[in-house]
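Hi there. Long-time user, first ticket. I'm pasting a complex I've been working with (about 301 residues overall). I'd like to know whether the download I got is complete or cut off, because the file seemed smaller than I expected. Thanks.
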Amino acid sequence: MLIRKPDDIASSEITPEGFYQNRRAFMGTVGAIALGSAVLPGVARAGAMQDDKVTPEEDATSYNNFYEFGTGKEDPKEQAKDFQPMPWSVNVEGMVKTPRPYTFDELLGKLPVQDRVYRMRCVEAWSMVIPWQGVQLKDVITRLQPLPSAKFIEFTTLLDPKRMPGQRRAVLPWPYKEALRMDEANNSLTLLATGMYGKALPNQNGAPLRLVTPWKYGFKGIKSIVKIRFTDKMPNTTWNDANPSEYGFYANVNPTVDHPRWSQGKERRIGEFLRRNTLMFNGYADQVASMYSGMDLRKNY
Ligand SMILES: Nc1nc2c(c(=O)[nH]1)N[C@H]1C(S)=C(S)[C@@H](COP(=O)(O)O)O[C@H]1N2
Ligand SMILES: [Mo]
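Hi, the file is complete. Here it is re-exported in full:
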């Protein structure tokens, strides 16, 4: 069992401890873009609803899923603490004007910085509210100029068992891959995040660059991206490869479609005691539902 049932998550696992260590190492490296404009939780509220309080930074950086750094929720903070994300480059491949490696700055530099507070819902039925900094993926796509024939965009995480100790065990088919349909990628909600809580992205949250799609389950939010590929065929994705009966390509948050092993109707907001109802498309239906009109969302899960 790769993903545990929500009931298996002990409350002791969400206790933050010593989370500030190692943070400063990243300031001034990837910080340039992430800190381009200051944001404080509670100031930039775009995307969050009234009763959504920002999750304490301690929790968001000490209770993580990042199997490249261990399968336990507290493993990534510890096992990623010496990871050096910079220098970083992203290989752009496939149906695109100029396939080539891009440096971090070539890919993201000078694009408008976004501050977005998003609800994030893990398939394991816990959720958080995170203030992200990053760029809209659609701005990156415009810069890269995919060919009109491209229908999907695929992302791949770094493969380097020396730097990512979790990859020494075959708990998932490495490297981790995710993909979006091109209209999903060009939706205004979709971010390539470089920071959170006004700081450079911590290693355990996917430094230096990760995907954020708040209407989809968390596993779509691929971390530490080293490859972007444009294609006309629906790509395989890691969780779908690992367990096709449990994880589909679309992964839209849908409280009416249960996971085979548990209900998706409710969620535990990290830091809260009572469970909340999970909202269709995680509450972002206004912005995303039209992309799926005519699709059977029970089949296309
Ligand atoms: N490369 C990679 N990306 C990943 C994962 C992973 O194991 N490896 N886990 C996913 C899952 S299941 C979730 S819920 C989110 C968690 O993001 P967070 O730790 O920043 O909250 O990252 C996603 N991105
Ligand atoms: Mo997840």
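A couple of notes from our side: The radius of gyration is 18 Å. The first helix runs from residue 31 to 34.
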